Structures are given as structure tokens and as C-alpha cells.
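Batch queue: ligand-bound targets. Current item pairs a single chain with NAP. No template structures supplied; prediction is de novo from sequence plus SMILES. Inputs echoed for audit trail.
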Amino acid sequence: MTSKVVQYRRYGGPEVLELVDREDPTPGPGQVRLAVRAAAVNPLDWKLRGGAMASGDAPGAPQVPGYDVAGTVDALGEGVTAFAVGDEVVGKATGGGYAEEAVADVRALVRKPAEVGWETAAALPVVATTAYRALALLGLGEGDHTGTTIVIDGASGAVGVVAVQLAVARGATVIGSAGEAHQDEVRALGATPVVYGEGLADRVRAVAPDGVDLGFDTSGYGGLRDLVALTGSPEKAITIADYAGAQELGVTFTSGGDPDDESRALAEALGLLAEGRLRAPTVVTYPLAEAGRAQDDNRTRRVAGKLVLLP
Ligand SMILES: NC(=O)c1ccc[n+]([C@@H]2O[C@H](COP(=O)([O-])OP(=O)(O)OC[C@H]3O[C@@H](n4cnc5c(N)ncnc54)[C@H](OP(=O)(O)O)[C@@H]3O)[C@@H](O)[C@H]2O)c1
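Prediction returned. C-alpha cells below.
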């Protein structure tokens, strides 16, 4: 059988993405294949497509972007007992998620609660696992953190929206930076909003006269230096998006975690969502064929929220 997939054969703008037919992928040992119902766009997808993290002007083989997928298991690899054909699952694909059929490691998948729709489920894996991991590394993991004040730079972004809610639920006082247009959204999540960009530290001090304990840079737009100044130590800050800044300032850059920890975090976030205790980032959908437009809308932030492709 063949199915549609979005791929690129050279690095460049959204125009390098092409919708093609390919043979359905075969799941390897410990993997399943999914009939994809929804696949989310992450900033990493367009960064990789643009070649920012590669040398040369073309990858060695056609690349299918995307990690976040939700779908129905339709084939099992050797040794798979955790899932059966027909199971509704969500998690991270291996070898690309912008496809009608995608493969994923069983360890990277969890069951989709019936109460959570396909699009919302697909929006969650990368952002939820990242928010859980970064907060845990900062010492703001599970438990009561009343008395701790954290600044989340990029609180209106997909990772930021989840991180703010987790930190608030754990009792922390949260100050969240966002653009002018998203101040009310950040307030609605339980944080005190401030505008990001130059002068961030002064604006934070004005709303946190007793000081700031922790800083989480979710956006990578240069706020890391202010977070270190506010907390007084590079060890009290973390970034998921400013690798160079982390190197320069001695701050932890986190990317990827233990697959079992990631799955536990995703399952918990889905459970909170199903119970109405967590609000997912706003989802905006695009047909799979318009993956390039979706990536560019995310890159430019022309469209805020989590952009999700529907095969
Ligand atoms: N290391 C990891 O494991 C990992 C995992 C996931 C994501 N990431 C990275 O983390 C970043 C955020 O991902 P995401 O999915 O949350 O992205 P997103 O949903 O596109 O959000 C981007 C955020 O950046 C904010 N922003 C825009 N311009 C800014 C500026 N000048 N100063 C400060 N903030 C600014 C946006 O605010 P407004 O919309 O209010 O303007 C928004 O809050 C990306 O670079 C992504 O590659 C890393």
C-alpha cells in the first residue's frame, strides 16, 4: 500500500516541502505503525528544514519532518505486546510525523484518553514532555512549591502555556513574558504577565519586589541573560532554545530526556487534560498538503497556538 507523506530533499524555505506518495513504512522490532489522525508542527521542524543544524545544502536522504503524532495502530513490529491493532495512541514518531502513515517506538507512545480529541492530543507530546523535564531540572517538579517565584520567558508559546500551568498548579508564583497581544492569555493561566524583550529584568523586578528564584527560557530570543541576572545564578535558570546563550552563561540547555520519563509526563498531561485540569495550547489545523504554510505561520508567529496537520 502507498500513502502520502511530506518530505524535503534539500534545505530551504517552505517551498522545499513536497507532498509525495510512498510505500507504507514497516515497523521494526519494538515499533508500531500508525494511521496518523493528527500531526503537530514544532519550531524544530522548520529549523531542521532550513538547514540551520546541518552542513551542506541537502540531507543525505529525503527527510520527513515532525515528531508529534496521534493516530490508530495499524501494524505491529516484532515483539510488540504493549499495543494492539486498533489502539488509539499519541506520542513521538521516528522518521517523521507529517504523513498518513508513521512509525513510532512503543516506548514513545501512550494511549490517547477518549476524552481528548486527536488534534489536541497531537499538540501535546513535545511541549508537555519538555515543560515537565525543564521544570524538574529546575527543582520545580511534582510537589508543593509555594513560596517559589519563577519567570517563564515565552509564556504564550506552546511550551510556555503548559509550563506556566504546571508551575501554578505546583504552588509557585509565576511571572510570564509574552508579546503585547498575549498578555491577557498569560494572566488567564494564573501568571503575572510582562512584555518580553529589552528591559525584561526591570519589568520583572517591578512585579516581583521580593525577588525571583528560578528562570525558564522557553523562547530563545535572548532573555536568558536577564533570567540569570534576576535569579543571581546560572544554576537557577534553564533554556530549551538558546544553545549559544547557555554555553556563554553556564546555563543548562535541555533537549530530550529518558523515554520512560517522557512517556510518564505525556500520560500525566493527557490525564490532566481529560479531567479539565490542564488547558492545551490553542490548536489551529491545516491540511497535510499545507505543511509549508503551517511551518511558516509558526516561524513568523503569524498564527499563535499549536499548529496541527490533518492527513
Ligand atoms: N530543547 C527542547 O527539548 C525543545 C522542545 C520544544 C521546543 N523547543 C524550542 O523552544 C522554542 C519554543 O517552542 P514552542 O513550541 O513553545 O514555540 P512557539 O509556540 O512558537 O512559541 C514561541 C514563543 O516565543 C515568544 N517570542 C517571540 N518573540 C520573542 C522575543 N523577542 N522574546 C521573547 N519571546 C519571544 C512568543 O511570544 P508571542 O507569541 O507572545 O510573541 C512565544 O511565547 C523553540 O525555539 C523550539 O525549537 C526546544
